Amino acid sequence: MALHRYLEGIIPVSREWPVDTRRMMQQDPEARERRDALSERLNTFLRRATAEGHLRADVDADWTRAALGRLVDTVAHDFPSMDAPRAADLVADTFLHGLGAR
Q1: How far apart are CA 12 and CA 86, in angstroms?
Q2: Beta carbons within 10 angstroms of residue 55's beta carbon
Q3: Across residues 28-37, what is the average pLDDT?
Q4: Is the pLDDT of residue 30 over 90?
């Protein structure tokens, strides 16, 4: 699953580079351009997932993106001993299915 591959890649990066990118982006236009390009790729991925019915279409896209980002940040920094594959499993399941009883 593409989401899981993304998560397995981004979680270790988030752990390795725990920086406030907003401040860096203000000071480095090239870094901002790279970040914007990567951000647009993620937005495109999430739009496609919504169009294919994997994500709810009735939820604002910005909320969906923010929720995914916060889940990644939480698992990367609050659970640093959790290995990336297990962390990706947890984030993907929470993002796609929530925490309600099934």
Answers
A1: 12
A2: 19
A3: 84
A4: no
Query: Which residues lie closer than 8 Å to 100 by C-beta, 6 or more apart?
Result: none
Query: Is 12 within 8 Å of 84 (Cβ atoms)?
Result: yes
Instruction: Please give the pLDDT value at position 59.
Output: 95
Under 8 Å between Cβ of 12 and 85? no
**Considering the entire predicted model, what is its pTM?**
0.85
How far lies 95's CA from each of 3, 46, 64, 72, 98, in Å? Answer: 10, 12, 9, 10, 6
Cβ distance 1 to 89 under 8 Å?
no
Alpha helices in 1-102, H assignment, sequence order: 2-16, 21-27, 29-51, 61-78, 84-97
